[in-house]
Write a structure and sequence with these properties.
Length: about 150
């Protein structure tokens, strides 16, 4: 009888462990749901930056992004990750139909260059910002997603 109880509880324990492993995330996967927030722009210099990417190693397309603490902490260290951004401010501001994919190179709180606005989730390089919106605006409403 003791042997059967031991076997029963052993199987039950293995099943519980399997269920726990199945339900718990094994990685820090990024939530695929797009978020809405504000974005500003910043101009050179783009180095030094929180990702410690030197000028010679920055992506030649000039499409860079700095993220706020919430986005930075969401992935642990997003350096080199991509963020897809779409302006949703309105027709007088946005270049509709344009999505932008920028490389995360900096952390908003550690930027060397001053952003055009401070109360934002993302700060895009001037080239990136200008490709989706009128760059005469200090900030815009955007939909974005970490890739």
């Amino acid at each position: 009888m003791k042997g059967l109880l031991f076997l029963f509880f052993s199987i039950l324990l293995m099943d519980l462990i399997t269920i726990a492993l199945f339900l718990s995330p094994l990685s820090t996967a990024v939530d695929p749901t797009p978020e809405v927030g504000s974005a500003a722009w910043y101009d050179a210099p783009y180095t030094p930056n929180a990702c410690k990417i030197g000028e010679e190693h920055l992506a030649p397309d000039g499409l860079y992004a700095a993220v706020d603490e919430g986005l930075w902490n969401k992935t642990g260290n997003p350096c080199g990750s991509k963020v897809q951004v779409r302006c949703i401010e309105g027709p007088d501001t946005c270049h509709y139909g344009t999505n932008l994919t920028a490389t995360i190179t900096d952390r908003l709180q550690q930027m060397v260059s001053e952003p055009s606005s401070f109360d934002v989730r993302l700060v895009l390089s001037k080239k990136a910002y200008g490709s989706i919106a009128d760059s005469s605006r200090d900030s815009i409403k955007v939909q974005f997603q970490l890739l």
